[in-house]
Design goal:
- The complex is a heterodimer of chains A (about 900) and B (about 600).
- Helices cover about 30% and strands about 20% of the residues of chain A.
- By secondary structure, chain A is an alpha+beta fold.
- In chain A, the strands form 9 sheets. In chain A, strands 2-1-3-4-5 form a 5-stranded parallel sheet, with helices on both faces.
- Helix content of chain B is about 40%, strand content about 20%.
- Chain B is built from 24 helices and 18 strands.
- In chain B, the strands form 4 sheets. In chain B, strands 8, 9, 11, 13, 14, 16 and 18 form a 7-stranded antiparallel sheet that branches. Chain B has a 5-stranded antiparallel sheet with strand order 6-5-4-3-7. Chain B has a 4-stranded antiparallel sheet with strand order 10-17-12-15, with no helix packed on it.
- In chain B, a hairpin with a 4-residue loop joins β3 and β4.
- The two termini of chain B are about 50 Å apart.
- Classes of the chains: A alpha+beta (about 900), B alpha+beta (about 600).
- At the A-B interface, β7, β30, α22 and α23 of A face α1, α2, α3, α17 and α20 of B.
């Protein structure tokens, strides 16, 4: 790798101006804790900083613990955590009491200090703050200086190691990298951001000097490198370091703290050392960021269960069970500290892990009737006999664990552009147990001979954790791996991923039932996923201040522009289910209660910590809970089925409900019609449902006797980990559809598929095009659009598809937008109104356009415009407030009234905040 | 082609040329300024005015509200229906946002004297909330006049509390001890709780001692229960009198039914009612023993009857097959997912584990009230929550003094009224819900939530009525004329529960169907008794199986039943979609 050498030289060049070491003393056995934002958090995944310091001080047996956390700021109020995660001081000191000791069971054996073995006890603290704060600009600087002052003073007053004040090192943010990518912040925006970062860097330097604290300027060297413009790309998005960036910054830090290297070992040794460091960090990360935190140390940790048949009882609590697992992780980490030392010293050490404290066995509170408390599982074929199917329909089995043992706990599924079924298999459910394999998977199930049954099962990814959702994009797949979102891609065609990128960090996992789920793309190419109550999420992006939300949200992420936003901030219990109809209107379900909502009502903009009020529902549900939804659009089924909502339900009624949706003035209502399928097999749990390329209704069956997070110990042995099925339902009187060729087809062929009546075909066509060159796709789209027959039925939808395709490729086409805004079809006008909000920063006069929409003759368009007006900020907020009331000149309904109130609240808050300054 | 409304552009022009908003120049701009502009442009179509006035009341500052207030008191300021509503909105603004119209509000006095009952009631409520001192003499007069309607009297009493002052308080104390009957005395006692809890407790004890079990003590008990330490003070006062057993029982049941079990009050009322004191929650061994007994002795059919008993109040909060209260969880599937001991614990020890959507909050208000409920939503100015009676309460944020997580709203004391065997039956029934068998989740829709005409006129009972009577006396009747009755899990309505001892015993029932897509619906009537059926105003009389074409909208299924003396008279009506029908419909459930 040539650039590595080049970078080393650059580091030397850039740091020689500050060549004297900053004078940080490193003593034998020092514990170094890294705190700060995503810059810090990501370091543990690449590992160069630790590697270089271990290499420099091979005999000093240092202990690194990375406590970085996405979105963190120096202000403690801007470090959101789920309940009883532990305070920053508790983590640094390695000292925290049992959160609710009175609720423990007499059987629980737990240490008084739950962080006893974390080995944090910081002697040295590396603090990486300032980037998120810098988004507040000059106006935010005084507050930052105050917070910094308080932080430094507080830190220096502590004795985290029990004997002396920590040696604190303040690190400035890195500069934002100007990237030659039209989808990311442009040159001017980056320059403006860097001017702000420079300001905050100066403030940090001053504060450090005032307190005699070591300061390392990362802004200067990175900025200088970017200005030279010669180096390799250092970030994935302008602000978050890639592997090269991690190495560069590590070298800068190493040089700044300890001076030029005289003894840097051969590259091969460093790589071995880095592998050892990352192996250690794997365990530490899973300890510090353990998933299911709310049941591990939060409120549900203190539920106690009966041992043997029953419910709650006097047996071991969740806390008593999984706190031990955390201790095991502490020991696994500490064992790897020793290996790191050995490798740093040029030796080898085989890690035995024979010193792990034993796990506590858990006795089920719901044993099955078979010997040893085993549960009865029906064979997947036999289970069909327990199903009642919609008249004229039939269920067939596509795949089961019997044929493919890796097909277990199928939580979400999707079809790729080749028409192959992908399934996320959550073997480690409810979350990974240390010492076992972390082996959640993404599987590809193929029917190669067309007999309607899977005959091949490939493992695309075998090392996932909590894969609560996934969606295809740009030739790869975006998959949840709470608290991160990953991008995985296979570049050599063996159907196994060989590229892995961390796209997002900081999605809370307090309850893995509530963690990022129900991945779905909108027709404009944005990705959505949801999380439930207990969760506290903070996500950074290159577009300004981090997004925060607590206790329930739907997120919106534009993978091309790497824009991340909170789409719905609402006090959900646990949202599960999100589907878009043919015209881009969407439905969001609160899974626990199965309440259906028309998303436009509560997805207008609100500023944290505010949340939306409770909107009217689409219909009153008769049963609960819901695990997933789909809009049925398939010519395989007769007309009366088109546009119906399919709603999975997993308790009481175990099957797929069907609802007929209809316009209800500005919004929708729906009534139940005959269910698609239901079963009397108590294990039957339809988890996900989707229309397949053949037009049939496909669904996964989680197939488990117990499904509650709350009603059984997290480690209850009755939680099934060996079953999973995929079924499909077809109409017996009608032919299946012929799946169209999509993957690898020429762009103009794929564009023709945007005329398909099947939502899922159009969606797959867009996915295919997401991996093609933007210039080629847009040019072809313009041509395709020009060639459409204006008078033909479906023209208005096709034209909207062309507009959506522009949105997919993040190419603003204002004239097309304006045409669709005045389409004769109100559905198209409403869809275009949504895009005005998405493109508001890049089109001429969005408020004028919305003024027309808010006075539209159709209430749906007015509703969408009322929604769109909530997104305006600054001086435009007051203007939007003047425009939005014009909707009152037209007939009202409860939906318009609700949405208007929500938009006015947001705009008023912004106007007031601006007036208060 | 552009299909936009022809007049929207004209509207824009109108809005652009409007007068400046009222309000002093040095004050921050009102967040309702755009609305005021729109309202005062004078060109808002009349039918759009209510929505704008409502929003101004919801969002405006004191100057904005003054504009609305002036229109309310001006002789021709507003159309009558809007005036009435606007008074309600101003009342809400003062109550939940703490914003009152600026300036002198004495102009309201003339409306308090109004001869129009609805207007007078709204004016009394508004004047009370705004504490318009000048109306005190009017309110005293209304409050002490036994001839005025109960709701007006209540509003006047509330006004006397809000306005305060020695004279008003003296009136209330007098009313509490010397009012014309237990009903009004209890109202007055509830008001006195607001300023003198010990005196209120003395009067409460006195009135309960002479009340009968027909007098509903809810309002008065709520006042004590909603006040910090209020129930304890009441309990002590009750020890000084002798309560009729039935009155004590009714009071006790009421307290339990709203999820409260205040120890001192429970003890005092239990002693007076002659029932045992509250047992502690069962231990794990006791739960296990109960589970065994439930499995050996519990009878689900008997249990369903107990579940439906009105004195236990189960259905006030819980629904099964979508019919019943909406406060607690819907129970149709509960047995399918919950082992028996969950059910036992949920009934006898409900605070053991509360699912996230049923976690309650306790709010202590600045004037000393303590309110509990499940939060619906909240913003910086107010919180909305659902209380144990299913009511939505809106509380101004500035009225909240302290807030904490609360306990489950599930009552803990009601099982005291059950024998052991009855408890086994009840638990057995709930454990069977949603399991395959007679208590499985229903797949064929039947009418589950019925409305029962409380006092059917003789035109309906004497003989099978003609259509005109159906229209007048049923379809056009007011919602208050009807009570609720719920079908059993399997859709059967046990008619014996509706017997009143009349001869002939005729009941008028009404179910509802929501149709979203027109088409034919098949109706099947199972009834052990002579019964006639109407769908809206179409007579099907004694047909037992028929199809009816229904248009989109809400439809009434009306049944007239003559209940005989047979042991188990029953009614069940199933609605299905015949093959080939395009109908999409849903049977309406709820409380």
């Amino acid at each position: 790798m040539k650039w590595t050498t080049a970078l080393c030289l650059l580091v030397l060049a850039l740091t020689t101006s500050v060549a004297q070491a900053a004078g940080l003393e490193i003593k034998k056995g020092d514990h170094i804790c890294i705190i700060g934002n995503t810059l810090a958090e990501r370091m543990q995944h690449v590992g160069w900083l630790e590697t270089l310091i271990y290499a420099r001080f091979p005999q000093r047996e240092l202990v690194f613990r990375n406590l970085g956390y996405s979105g963190d700021e120096i202000d403690l109020n801007k470090r959101l955590r789920s309940m009883d995660f532990g305070t920053p001081d508790q983590w640094l000191a390695g000292n925290a009491p049992v959160p609710q000791p009175k609720k423990l069971s007499p059987k629980d054996e737990v240490p008084a200090n739950r962080f006893e073995r974390t080995n944090t006890k910081a002697d040295v603290i590396f603090a990486f703050f300032g980037y998120n704060e810098s988004a507040a600009g000059e106006a935010g600087l005084p507050k930052f200086e105050r917070d910094l002052e308080a932080f430094v003073k507080h830190t220096l007053e502590q004795k985290y190691n029990g004997t002396s004040a920590p040696r604190l090192v303040l690190f400035s943010p890195v500069a934002q990298e100007p990237l030659d990518d039209p989808n990311l912040p442009g040159k001017e925006a980056v320059a403006a951001a860097n001017a702000q970062i420079a300001m905050y860097t100066a403030a940090m330097k001053e504060a450090a000097a005032a307190h005699g604290v070591v300061f390392v300027d990362l802004f200067g060297p990175t900025s200088a490198l970017y200005q030279k413009g010669a180096g390799p790309r250092l970030t994935i998005n302008g602000i978050h370091l890639n592997a090269a960036g991690d190495r560069f910054v590590a070298q800068v830090i190493d040089g700044a703290l300890f001076g030029p290297r005289s003894n840097s070992g051969p590259a091969a040794d460093l790589e071995r050392l880095r592998q050892a460091v990352n192996d250690k960090n794997f365990y530490w990360y899973n300890r510090y960021r353990t998933t299911d935190g709310y049941s591990t140390y939060g409120d549900r940790a203190f539920l106690k269960f009966s041992e043997g048949p029953g419910g709650y009882g006097e047996g071991r609590s969740n806390y008593g069970t999984v706190q031990r697992e955390l201790e095991v992780l502490d020991v696994l980490t500490a064992n790897r500290d020793q290996r790191v030392w050995a490798v740093a010293q040029g030796k080898e050490l085989k890690v035995e892990d024979n010193n792990l404290p034993p796990f506590f066995p858990v006795i089920t509170n719901k044993p099955g009737p078979l010997e040893g408390g085993k549960h009865i599982y029906l064979d997947a074929d036999e289970a069909i006999g327990k199903m009642t199917v919609h008249r004229g329909m039939q269920v067939t089995l596509f795949a089961s664990e019997k044929q493919f043992p890796e097909l277990v706990n199928p939580v979400q599924m999707a079809f790729d552009t080749k028409g192959r079924l992908w399934v996320a298999a959550w073997h480690t459910y409810p979350h990974w147990k240390p010492t076992e394999a972390m082996d959640d998977k993404l599987l590809i199930l193929e029917d190669t001979n067309g007999d309607g049954k899977a005959d091949v099962c490939k493992t695309f990814a075998a090392d996932l954790s909590n894969p609560t959702g996934f969606e295809f994009w740009n030739g790869g797949v975006i998959v949840a791996r709470g608290p991160d979102i990953l991008f995985l891609k296979d570049t050599d065609g063996d159907d196994k991923y060989d590229v892995k990128e961390h796209l997002l960090h900081g999605l809370d996992t307090a309850d893995t039932h509530h963690t990022s789920n129900s991945f779905v793309l909108d027709p404009g190419g944005a990705l959505y996923f949801q999380e439930g109550t207990f969760h506290h999420t903070q996500v950074e992006s290159p577009w300004g201040q981090p997004r925060r939300v607590a206790n329930g949200a739907v997120f919106r992420y534009e993978p091309r522009a790497q824009k991340f936003d909170v789409y719905v901030s609402f006090g959900f219990a646990n949202p599960h289910g999100h589907a878009f109809d043919k015209w881009g209107q969407d439905f969001v379900y609160d899974g626990t209660g199965a309440q259906p909502y028309h998303a436009v009502l509560f997805s207008g903009s609100v500023d944290f910590p505010h949340k939306h009020a409770h909107p009217p529902q689409v219909y009153k549900q008769r049963t609960r809970p819901c695990s997933g939804v789909e809009v049925l659009n398939s010519r395989h089924f007769p007309d009366e089925f088109q546009g119906n909502l399919l709603v999975n339900n997993v308790i009481g009624f175990q099957g797929i409900l069907q609802y007929k949706v209809q316009d209800q003035t500005s919004s929708f209502s729906a009534v139940e019609t005959e269910p698609i399928v239901s079963s009397t097999d108590p294990n039957f749990r339809p988890a996900d449902v989707e229309i397949g390329p053949d037009g049939a209704i496909w669904f996964t069956d989680w197939n488990n006797p117990i499904i509650g997070h709350m009603q059984h110990n997290l480690r209850d042995p009755s939680r099934g980990r060996d079953h999973g099925r995929v079924y499909r339902v077809h109409h017996t009187g009608r032919d299946l559809l012929k799946p169209p060729a999509i993957a690898g087809e020429p762009v103009d062929k794929v564009l023709e598929l945007l005329k398909s009546p099947e939502d899922r075909v159009r969606s797959r066509a867009r996915i295919e095009l997401s991996g093609r060159r933007t210039s080629e796709v847009i040019a072809a789209a313009e041509k395709w659009l020009a060639g459409l027959d204006v008078g033909a039925p479906g023209y208005e939808h096709h034209r909207l598809e062309a507009l959506w395709l522009h949105q997919n490729h993040n190419v603003v086409n204002e004239s097309l937008l304006k045409q669709v805004l005045r389409s004769p079809d109100f559905h198209a006008r409403a869809a275009a109104t949504r895009i005005v909000a998405n493109w508001r920063d890049r089109i001429g006069s969005p408020l004028e356009l919305l003024q027309a929409q808010v006075n539209d003759e159709h209430p749906r368009v007015r509703l969408q415009a009322v929604w769109a007006l909530s997104f305006f900020t600054g001086p435009e907020a007051a203007k939007a407030g003047e425009i939005v009331v014009e909707s009152l000149v037209h007939p009202q309904d409860e939906y318009l009234k609700f949405a208007l109130d929500e938009t006015m609240k947001t705009l008023d808050r912004r106007t007031k905040a601006a007036g208060g300054k | 082609m552009l299909i936009c409304s022809r007049n929207w552009f004209a509207t824009l022009v109108v809005i652009t040329f409007v007068t400046a908003p009222v309000g002093a120049a040095d004050e921050p701009a009102s967040t309702a300024a755009p609305l005021m502009k729109l309202y005062q442009s004078g060109r808002l179509p009349a039918e759009r005015q209510p929505a704008v006035v409502e929003l101004i009341c919801n969002r405006g500052n004191d100057h904005d509200l003054r504009v609305v207030f002036d229109k309310i008191v001006a002789a021709d300021g507003m159309p009558e229906p809007l005036r009435l509503k606007a008074m309600g909105w101003l009342t809400e603004a003062a109550r939940t946002r703490k914003v009152k119209p600026s300036g002198d509000l004495a102009g309201l006095a003339q409306l308090v004297k109004s001869k129009d009952a609805a207007l007078q009631l709204a004016a009394v409520r508004l004047a009370s909330t705004l504490s318009v001192a000048g109306v005190s003499p009017d309110l005293q007069k209304i409050a002490t006049d036994p001839g005025v309607p109960a709701n007006l009297q209540q509003a006047a009493i509330a006004g006397l509390v809000a306005i305060g002052g020695d004279q008003n308080r003296a009136t209330l104390l007098h009313l509490a001890s010397k009012g014309s009957g237990p009903g009004v005395r209890m109202q007055a006692v509830a008001a006195v709780v607001g300023f003198d809890v010990p005196a209120a407790a003395r009067e409460a004890a006195a009135v309960l001692a002479v009340a009968s079990a027909d007098d509903d003590p809810a309002v008065m008990l709520n006042a004590f229960l909603d006040r910090k330490e209020g129930s304890a003070v009441l309990a002590r006062a009750l020890q000084q009198v002798k309560l009729p057993v039935d009155v004590a029982k009714r009071s006790l049941r009421y307290m339990y039914s709203i999820g409260r079990n205040d120890a001192e009050l429970s003890a005092a009322l239990s002693a007076a009612a002659g029932v045992v004191a509250d047992p502690p929650p069962p231990t794990q061994d006791e739960v296990a023993a109960l589970v065994r007994e439930v499995q050996q002795q519990g009878d689900a059919a008997r249990g369903e009857k107990i579940f439906r008993r009105s004195d236990l109040s189960c259905m006030r909060c819980h629904s099964v097959s979508r019919a019943g209260g909406q406060v607690g969880p819907e129970l149709s599937a509960v047995g399918g997912s919950s082992p028996v001991d969950y059910v036992v614990n949920s009934i006898l020890n409900p605070n053991l584990a509360v699912k996230e959507q049923f976690v309650t909050r306790i709010f202590e208000t600045v004037d000393g009230k303590v309110l509990t409920g499940i939060v619906i939503d909240r913003d910086e100015s107010r919180v909305r929550f659902r209380d144990a009676q299913g009511k939505t309460i809106t509380l101004a944020t500035s009225d909240i003094d302290a807030e904490a997580e609360g306990k489950s709203m599930m009552p803990t004391g009601l099982t005291k009224f059950l024998t052991k065997g009855e408890l086994f039956d009840l638990i057995r029934f709930i454990s069977e819900l949603g399991k395959p068998g007679p208590y499985a989740v229903q797949t064929v829709p039947a009418i589950q939530r019925w409305r029962v005409l409380i006092n059917p006129p003789h035109e309906l009972t004497d003989a099978v009525p003609h259509l005109e009577h159906i229209r007048q006396l049923i379809l056009d009747s007011s919602p208050e004329a009807w009570g609720a009755a719920y079908g059993q899990v399997a859709g059967v309505l046990p008619l014996d529960e509706l017997r009143k001892g009349n001869r002939p015993n005729v009941v008028i029932l009404r179910g509802e169907v929501q149709v979203n897509e027109a088409g034919k619906v098949a109706v099947k009537v199972y009834c052990t008794e002579p019964a006639q059926v109407w769908i809206d105003a179409e007579a099907f009389e004694s047909q037992r199986e028929f199809e009816v074409a229904l248009e989109p909208g809400r439809h009434q299924v009306i049944v007239r039943v003559e209940i005989s003396d047979r042991p188990a008279p029953q009614l069940k009506i199933e609605l299905t979609r015949p093959s080939g029908s395009s109908a999409q419909f849903e049977v309406v459930g709820g409380s």
